[in-house]
Specification:
The complex is a heterodimer. Chain A is an alpha+beta fold. Chain A has two domains: 1-30; 37-185, 3-Layer(aba) Sandwich (Glutaredoxin), CATH 3.40.30.10. Helices cover 37% and strands 21% of the residues of chain A. A seven-stranded mixed beta sheet of chain A has the order 2-1-5-4-3-8-9. Chain A is globular. The two termini of chain A are 36 Å apart. The model of chain A is unreliable at 5-27 (pLDDT under 50). Chain B has a single domain (2-13, 29-42, 51-260), classed as paralog of FGE (formylglycine-generating enzyme) (Alpha-Beta Complex), CATH 3.90.1580. Chain B has a three-stranded antiparallel beta sheet, covered by helices on one side. In chain B, strands 2-3 form a two-stranded antiparallel sheet. A two-stranded parallel ribbon of chain B has the order 5-6. In chain B, helix 1 packs across helix 2. Chain B starts with a helix and ends with a strand. Residues 1-26 and 205-221 of chain B have low confidence and may be disordered. Classes of the chains: A alpha+beta, B alpha+beta. Chain A binds chain B through residues 32, 34-37, 39-40, 74, 136-137, 139-141, 143-147, 149-150, 155-158, 174-177, and chain B through 43-44, 55, 57, 90-93, 121-122, 196-197, 199-205, 207-211, 245-247. Chain B: Residues 31-258 form the Sulfatase-modifying factor enzyme-like domain. Chain B: Residues 1-20 form the signal peptide. Chain B: Keywords: Signal. Chain B: One of its GO terms (molecular function) is formylglycine-generating oxidase activity.
Chain lengths: 189, 261
């Protein structure tokens, strides 16, 4: 009897791997829920010059913020807060996404240089540039308010958004008073 | 009801001129000439500095719908873009009140020539893009309303009369009032209107740190930070924009489209 149970367990264990892989692929391809950011059809380019859509973020939880690399004061704080969350969330498999509000100024090369200058791990960090409409639409779904300040920069919200694997917003932190441990506590298991 | 929607869509496809309002005014867009516009808000000052007076900015010539988009026009859009029907639009883009009085892709009876309302910014943007246009920027919209200084007192009077009317009254049809100097009707007095960059209002220093004690935050959020504190209707327009989110809908919030010259 014990032998039969062990065989059954071994078979089910072996079968579970392809099933899990299949489910993961299916999840990435399945139609997003009505609340998912993956409904945005916008196209983006990352810091390595690779083209992607928001659906390419599926399968991992993401921390998303918007800013721009020549931003003198608030954006370095946003990135520093994201880095602190990254440190506090080690082992949780979070992805960190920084989207530029200045697609004309922030080329993929500039984004890559910015990532390297700030020591952002390319395995965890994705920096995105899109066209004006892509930026405007993403800012709209996130609730990021912004405007050109007439001096080459932007006034904008400092907003951190946590997405689940399906691109749905699970938590937003609308200011710079970020407690990394508290933020990580909102990451769903 | 589905049959009624289909009949309406077919009728509009065959007789697009039916989309024109009942009045004799020409439909479509009016040209708005290039000019200078002084933004309503002062520049957000650096910490410890006073807010700078807004400087005039140059606007290129553009085109703007003569009237707010009507329910009939929006019904025609839905017929060819069913993904924006009430039952199909993702809730990322619309709130639960989106087209709340519509059924089967058709507006409530008798409202075909009234401005379409209960539409989100995303839906309004999709409508304009489907026509090859866009939403006007806030500066463009305000510049068009300013009408080169013509009729300012009239705009104020119509606005104040409108604010005094209780909510809930049925919206009238577009084009009942006189057009301004650019040929634009119903800019105020009928519905509020979405603009492309509505969320630029409220994006100042106060957004950076909600617990800041910085003086600039208070100046940026109050009447002291505007060009003309006596312009109450303008304060109301900007306050409304600052209160909106892109998926919000309201019974008295519509839109019109713009295009580049």
């Amino acid at each position: 009897m014990l032998r039969a149970l062990l065989v059954a367990w071994a078979i089910s264990f072996a079968l579970s791997f392809p099933v899990m892989a299949h489910d993961h692929a299916a999840m990435a391809q399945a139609a997003p829920s009505g609340a998912s950011l993956f409904n945005l059809p916008s196209h983006w380019t990352d810091q390595n010059g690779h083209a992607l859509t928001l659906r390419d973020l599926a399968g991992k939880k993401s921390v998303v913020a918007m800013g721009y690399t020549s931003c003198p004061d608030i954006c370095p704080l946003i990135v520093a807060n994201m880095a602190a969350i990254e440190k506090a969330a080690q082992g949780r498999g979070l992805r960190f996404v920084f989207v530029t509000l200045d697609p004309k100024g922030d080329t993929p090369e500039k984004l890559k240089a910015y990532a390297e200058a700030h020591g952002l791990d390319p395995a965890d960090w994705t920096l995105l540039a899109g066209n004006d409409k892509a930026v405007r639409d993403l800012a709209a779904v996130l609730g990021v308010r912004y405007r050109a300040n007439g001096e080459g920069g932007f006034d904008h919200s400092a907003l951190l958004t946590l997405l689940n694997e399906n691109g749905e917003v699970v938590y937003q932190k609308p200011d710079m008073q970020v407690d990394p441990a508290d933020f990580v506590a909102h990451v769903p298991h | 009801m589905a049959r009624r929607a289909a009949i309406l869509a077919t009728f509009l496809a065959v007789f697009p001129s039916a989309l024109a309002p009942a009045c004799a005014a020409p439909a479509g867009m009016a040209p708005v000439p290039a000019g200078a516009f002084t933004p309503f808000f002062k520049m957000i000052p650096a910490k410890g500095q006073r807010g700078a007076e807004p400087r005039p900015i140059a606007l290129k010539a553009f085109r703007l719908d003569r009237f707010p988009v009507t329910s009939a026009q929006f019904a025609a859009f839905l017929a060819t873009n069913p993904q924006w029907r009430r039952e199909a639009a993702p809730r990322l883009f619309v709130d639960p009140n989106y087209l709340r009085r519509w059924r089967e892709g058709a507006p409530a009876a008798g409202e075909a020539l009234a401005p379409v309302t209960n539409v989100s910014w995303f839906a309004a943007q999709a409508f304009c893009e489907a026509r090859g246009g866009r939403l006007p920027t806030t500066d463009e919209w305000e510049y068009a309303l300013a009408d080169a200084g013509r009729g300012r007192d009239q705009v104020t009077r119509i606005s104040l009369d409108w604010f005094a009317r209780p909510n809930g009254a049925r919206l009238g049809e577009v084009g009942q009032g006189a057009a301004n100097g650019y040929g634009l009707s119903d800019m105020v007095g009928l519905v509020w209107e979405w603009t492309e960059d509505f969320s630029a209002t409220g994006s100042g220093a106060e957004q950076r740190n909600t617990s800041s004690k910085d003086d600039a935050a208070f100046c940026g959020g109050g009447a002291a930070g505007v060009r003309d504190p006596a312009d109450y209707p303008a304060l109301m327009r900007y306050a409304l924009r600052a209160s909106l989110k892109a998926r919000y809908t309201q019974d008295n919030l519509g839109f019109r489209c713009a295009g580049d010259e």
